[in-house]
Amino acid sequence: MQGSTSQDKPDTADSNPSAQGIASGVRPDRDAGDSRGHADKGDYEGSPSAKRTLYKPSSEWIMVLFTAVIAFWAGLQWYEMHGSGKQADKLIIAASKLADAAKDQAQAADDTAAAAGDQVDAANNFSDSAEEINRGVSGAVNQLQAAAKNTRTAIENAQTSFRDEQRAWVGVSDVKTIEFSESKPWNVGVIFTNSGRTPARNVQTSVGFRVSEVPISGPYPGDIKQLVFRPAQSIAPEAKFVHALGYFALGEARTPREMQGNQYLVSKFQDIKSGKANVYYFGILKYDDIFGNHRETKFCVFLANPETQKAAFCDGFNDLN
Question: Angle formed by the axes of helices 17-24 and 34-46, to 10°?
């Protein structure tokens, strides 16, 4: 152990200059001589320690390599970004086109809505105009109907007035006593006058009587129902027709009822003359005017004063149409 001590002692700088140069990181001085320099180079390259030192990468190389990797990665990223950018540009253009199309559709929808609104307004205006027209037409129709009614009424009034002026008007103008005695009943003439401008045609007359101890205004309904009509002559315009009551002309047909009536009146002469009873004659004269209308003239008279034989009209049943 002791014999190897001197051999294992490391060389110092003075004993091994080459080693000292390598350890200090300074290459040997080539200016000292070529032989020495070549000897030193041979020794440097053959040393294992020197080999490990020669191939050890420095920080500059690492930085260069790292920079190259980053540059390559950045190139890939740029390529991908550039490609993605193109795709994004295409998407943006497509989206812009879609947005423009949607905008156009929205504008078209707005235009359609505006047109629909205009149509609604036009329909409303037309409806308002139609209502105004309807009101105007309705008012015009009402006015025309009123005018037509007034015209029709005026025409009817004119026709009625014309017919009234031209028709026959037959009324009782006077009544006169002919005879009143114990042997004959009260004979009286009722005078009818046609004051119209046309004749009264299809004339028919009737007569009835009643003896009453109390004053009456006219015949009873039952008395009117028993009237019997007989034809008479037509009455010309402004002409008179005398209807003799209680008097029978020679050769005139008499019914049993009429004969009984005459006999009853003769039997009541004293009561009538003294004022205990009143005698009434009544009847209806029927005729047609030239327009074919049926007319009637009613009459009722009584012996107001037996002493003077004055006749008078009853309070009722004296009328004509």
Answer: 60
